Amino acid sequence: MLDYLATKWQSLVFRLLLYFTLSILALAVILAISFSQRLRPHVQQQVLPNIERYLDYLISDIGNPPDLVVAQQLADDLPFEIRIEGQGSNWASSPAIKPISSYRFEAAPPPYDHVHYSHQRRTELLLIKRNGLQYLFVVEDSFRRGAERRHGLLFIGLAAILLVLYLGIRRLFRPIAVMSEQVRRIGEGDLQQSVEVENKGELGLLAAGINRMSRQIKSMLESKSGLLLAISHELRSPLTRMRVNLELLDDDELRHKLVDDTREMETLIGAILESEKLNSSHAPLSLSQVQLVELIEEVVANHPQHNRIDMRLTPIELAVDELRCKLLLKNLIDNALQYSRDPEAHITIELRSEQDAAILQVVDQGIGIAAADIPRLTEAFYRPDSARQRNTGGYGLGLYLCQLIVAAHGGVLRIESEPGKGTRVVVSLPVDNS
After folding, report:
1. Exposure b/e, 140-160, CB count within 10 A at least 16 = b
2. 44: which DSSP letter?
3. Which CATH class is domain 287-430?
């Protein structure tokens, strides 16, 4: 219940309705107190004298000693039940009326303190003592039921007003929910849809501003992506020519160094191109049913440091993009091996099934990463100084590319690390990602 209220409290419509409800209740309490303060002197000055006179007329008609036939006739004709006690009389117009001593009464304010009243089980009782006799008048419950019926109708009317008010406020602020959803989609990278709001006032201006912002962000991202793709494509041609020319050098040592540099640049360009493809909506995955154990074993067997890799694998078949999953696994293995403290230390690859997901883990005993740096590890070109100095190689695209591949498959990538103890990268891929 508390969680539900905490969630509803975030709703502007819910809070407005709550404020209106509290305002109405506060107003009702103030009116009730004011009414009671005004009613008290009115009851003392006008109501009680009239009631006393009316009851005196009834008592005079009954007589002393009481004429029980007249009393019964009055009880039949009027909306009262009557009980008379004293001077040897103990009579009631209805067997349902208990002896007077069974009730607890309060005296009316002076000078009418000889009139006593009580309320018992939705029934009003008035007691008057005259000449050694006690006269109890019981008001029929139909009067109170009528008042309660009126009160019920009043509360139903108030509830109806609150309901109409709620629906009106909800309709008024519905564009805010639409805009909130659009802002959430923008945050998740969906810039295709715009906010459609009929309101021409402030909310309409806000919606137009969000649409304008979405278009500008989309334009900037497309420009950035186009620039990266263009530069990457244009760099491939001169790199190819460089590789050809390098083969003609006589100095073997210099040639090897330059060839390594050109390979590193080609790897960087390939990573940029692949990340931009995955980050756009124009490169759908090529899914096929793959035995993940076989895929992992193939990647490990082809890795130059396969002797440093331990595996604990559970057979799982999954619909994935095989080429991109190989790239994902290769990047995770390279990272784990590259940042190990001991050049001979082993890393571990684990694969298991958990509920409706395949869980892949790559664990190393390396230098670890500070907690403050972990949330940014999957950003493009981010390299924490404490973990990835330039002399270790890499441009900060490996984990960024891994994150894109996992997200494209509908999965989640999580990094757990502690400086000096190692890092664990956990990839969760849904079993049904169609």
Report:
1. eeeeeeeeeeeeeeeeeeeee
2. I
3. alpha beta
Report the SS3 class of residue 205: helix
Residue 136 near residue 117 (C-beta atoms within 8 A) = no
For residues 139 and 122, give the distance between their C-alpha atoms in angstroms, rounded to a whole number.
Answer: 10
Q: CB 76: neighbour CB atoms within 10 A?
A: 9
pLDDT of 134-185, one tens digit each? 988 887 655 455 556 666 677 787 778 777 877 777 777 777 777 777 777 7
Look at 22-31, 75-84, 254-263, 346-355 and tell me which has the smallest mean pLDDT: 254-263
Instruction: Give the three-class secondary structure for 244.
Output: helix
Strand pairing report for 115-120 and 123-130: antiparallel
Q: Which helix (H) or strand (E) holds 155?
A: helix 141-172
Three-class secondary structure of residue 414 per DSSP: strand
Terminal C-alpha separation, the chain = 36
What are the residue ranges spanned by the domains of the chain? Answer: 2-165, 202-278, 287-430
Give the chain's length: 434
- Residue 250 φ/ψ, nearest 5 degrees: -85, -30
Class of domain 202-278 (CATH, top level): mainly alpha
